[in-house]
From TrEMBL:
In the C-terminal section; belongs to the cyclodeaminase/cyclohydrolase family. In the N-terminal section; belongs to the formiminotransferase family. Residues 185-346 form the Formiminotransferase C-terminal subdomain domain. It is found in: Cytoplasm, Cytoskeleton, Microtubule organizing center, Centrosome, Centriole; Golgi apparatus. NCBIfam families: FtcD. One of its GO terms (cellular component) is centriole. The lineage of its organism: Bacteria, Pseudomonadati, Bacteroidota, Flavobacteriia, Flavobacteriales. Its main location: cytoplasm. The keyword Transferase applies. The keyword Transferase applies. This is Formimidoyltransferase-cyclodeaminase. Transmembrane segments: none annotated.
Amino acid sequence: MNKQLIECVPNISEGRDINKINAIANSVKTVEGVKLLDVDAGKATNRTVITFVGEPKNVIEAAFRLIKKASELIDMSKQKGEHPRFGATDVCPLVPIANISMEETAEYARQLGKRVGEELGISGYYYENAATSADRKNLATVRSGEYEGLKEKLSKPNWKPDFGPTEYNQQIVSSGVTAISARDFLIAYNVNLNSTSARRANAIAFDIRENGRVHTINGKNVLDKNGNPERIPGKLKAVKGIGWFIEEYGIAQISYNLTNISITSMHQAFYETDLCATERGLRVTGSELVGLVPLQAMLDAADFYLQKQERSLGISESEKIKIAIKSLGLDDLKPFNPQERIIEYVMNADADKKLIDFTIKDFAEETASESMAPGGGSIAAYVGALGVSLGTMVANLSAHKQGWDQKWEYFSNWAVKGQKYKNELLFLVDEDTNAFNKIIDGFRMPKTNYEEIEARKLAIENATKYATEIPFKVMETGHNSIEVMIEMMKNGIQNSLSDAGVGVLCAKTAVTGAYFNVRINAKDIKDRKFAEEIIAKAEAIYQKTMVLEQEMMQIINSKI
């Protein structure tokens, strides 16, 4: 069963005292199996967003320790800051990341709250998907009145805390209360203005946020049929926002919570804010990401602006990240390091180095060493990746060719297809070596009794099948990738005809080399039906590739 993972993103009401911040954040590291991903402190807001991830029980333990440490070090009776807050650990949301449902995550949130209330004597509320009633789902509603209004709030029967003491006491004076939730992935995202006016920033926030603004005529609220103030909704769904002045930077910002980025993305919020600011005579200068962001959100932002510019989308991931940073102005206030701010990059930081992460020289040295891997299968996959990279290059050059502006989308689509083939082949570079290592692991299994011998035989057989399937996948992908090169030879920039031709030759080498590996691995498979079927399919792909090579030569000979 795949490992369950949840993310925890507590916001503590301290953003200035680095010693306190580190002590609170480091409490997370005392729990084995939990990875601290990010600590993002804000001086003006006097608030720090801490992000960590792990298996649910470990994350709950780490969150409990963090809440405990925050209550010991932060005295809410003395705390001041721009951001709305009502507790030392103001909010503590749990976010399902992998192999866990929202319902399961909500149950863990309630387990955490129960412990916080019973063991720490800290009161609080459940919100979002952990809420005990519909009127407590919205965090803004739960936090209304903030810390200063807690005494009055707790005196009201309808605001009895969900966990912890129900009456205002000395613990609440010191630590405030805590809101705990299970929610979808949320991006805390600030847009920077060339203004110092919080009022004007707020006006833009009202234009954009889903809740919009109260409808007024001549300064008076317009009431609906129930006698409540009528609201004019904002432009974007699943967006909360307020405007404020940030003394640290000397600018006004619109601070957004993007509560569902599949509904409203980061780049949509930025783009619409820019339009609204321009209409009001202001200018957006950039933006600021609080905490971490999923990789896909950055790639989507890059694609959005590449399309606006009528440029090819078939460029590398690293180039797209650069475009997203510059397009959104994420480095406007301070440097933006993707390795520290993108979730997937941070989580993989301590992973073992892959072959594709080697320099060209180191890859060659590793191949030439006395180690048996990487071998011919990995090299075949890598040669195939180089081949389709050439085809993709021709597509990108063609998309950018002067006078071919009306064709940019056609070539962009081919470049995107080429990037997909390239990424598949790069994955197979390492996977071929991993498959070989599984065979070695099988041979190292104990064989001191009948059960162990049979288990060892089965492990070796399954590993050998897999080590045959991987080069077969290289053959399939390498063969299919030739379509990019052939198309570019026919319709792309003709000055790059030879580049596409070399790409076909590389793909053909990948197919041929992987074919050898299929055949040599299949001979050791005991299941002969499986072996004969995969060899037959491999032979068919090999023959079709030879035909494509001849087609490439005919094009070359007719045009050069």
